[in-house]
Amino acid sequence: MSEEKKRILEMLSQGRINTDEAERLLSAISGNEQTQSGQEDTGKKPVPKYLRVIVEPAPGSDNPEKVNIRVPYKLIRAGLKLASFVPKNAQSKVNEALRDKGIDIDFSKIKPEDLEEIISQLDDISVNIDGKETVRIFSE
What we know:
Elements: H1 3-13, H2 19-37, E1 50-56, E2 67-72, H3 73-83, H4 88-100, H5 112-121, E3 124-128, E4 134-139
Helix pairs in contact: 1-2
């Protein structure tokens, strides 16, 4: 227990503050601890809310454009739920079209718990493409 919490409980036991004041002080301290450490007192990582993809041009590149995409995980989760409503024959056509483009994935086999596992494992990925662009994929 932190020193601040101990002091608040001490003041409460001595009658210097009432329970409402103690509760407000404790919640203020908890909020302060979260913002200072970036995570709660429990030591767990904060739950990511966004998938971020950044593509930065190589130094000295003629193309100064930078790609910066931020997709809410809620949207991705909703998309997975909606995909379950796509008829089976349409799913096979989509999978075939993706394979024709070199993407061998079957979205019908991805379950919500699989997505949660991917999110929990996705800390920070950086990829250099033949000394050209840098691609970073991470959760925030």
